[in-house]
Amino acid sequence: MPVLYIVVPCYNEEAVLSETAKRLGEKAAQLVKDEKVSKCRIMFVNDGSKDKTWEMIERFHAEDPETFTGLSLSRNRGHQNALLSGLMEAKNHADIIVSMDADLQDDINAVDAMVDKYNNEGCEVVYGVRNQRKTDTFFKRSTARMFYMGANVVYDHADYRLLSRRATEALGEFEEVNLFLRGIVPLIGFKSDKVYYDRGERFAGESKYPLKKMIAFAIDGITSFSVKPLKMITGAGFFMAVVALGFLIKAFVDHYTGHADAGWPSIMCSIWFIGGVQTVCIGVIGEYIGKIYGETKHRPRYIVEKYLG
After folding, report:
1. For residues 71 and 68, what is the distance between their CA atoms, to the nearest angstrom?
2. Beta strands in the chain (DSSP E)
3. Strand-pair partners of 97
4. Spatial CA neighbour of 162 closest among 124, 217, 188
5. Residue span of the structural domain in which 292 resides
6. Is residue 304 part of a domain?
7. Taking the model in full, what pTM does it have?
């Protein structure tokens, strides 16, 4: 029977972490009792939290070191890097690894089906896929569909998945600084399958992905500070395009009210529109240059400050 680690990245999760630890602890014991795994441990990854998240993780480990372990990053590095750090550490101890968020929105009972896919069918990558998105707003559902259309990812899958040790080691060979695991994991290959589940409401606390972060994540994953000026250029381009649309509307109004100056509306609309389009194009090119800039530095994606166990 395989050894299972469940990796849970955490950022300011003190409101929900006690319940998360309780439910995952019970699930770990049940998996061992049902002889699906020989051992199951929960690894919490503290992503530079500013609340008592790390203190709680230390307490869980002190109370039950066989079930709970954890590591703390030197500073906040973002969800994807925190998750990667846990995966890279867990692969040294586990045969299979399940990653999930701390908010309890993902159905932890789906872990059983994931493990069965590995044990019975030899699947080395198992994706947790939502049955539906009823808990999401209309805006989020709509933008999510556009996002999936623009990336090579599994539809309605976030970061709830099972990876074998071999698949995790293969994941470690990808050295992108601009980390986007949902797009990288499908590139690994190996036999894969899906497990469907119903996603619930967040148990407690606030979402760590408000609209602003969701948009940034959809564009380029994690954005470094050096790319922000390029984003401002892109925003300026869109602003100028909107102003051009405003001039176009004004031109129509002036024409039908008899206040139009011959030639002026068409010239102004052309100047603003072309300028806006050019600036947007420069901004998009700048996004790619910014990514290249970040990749060439080869800076570490994360630094582990403390490790329990």
Report:
1. 11
2. 3-10, 39-46, 68-73, 96-99, 125-130, 157-164, 192-197, 304-308
3. 5, 163
4. 124
5. 225-297
6. no
7. 0.70
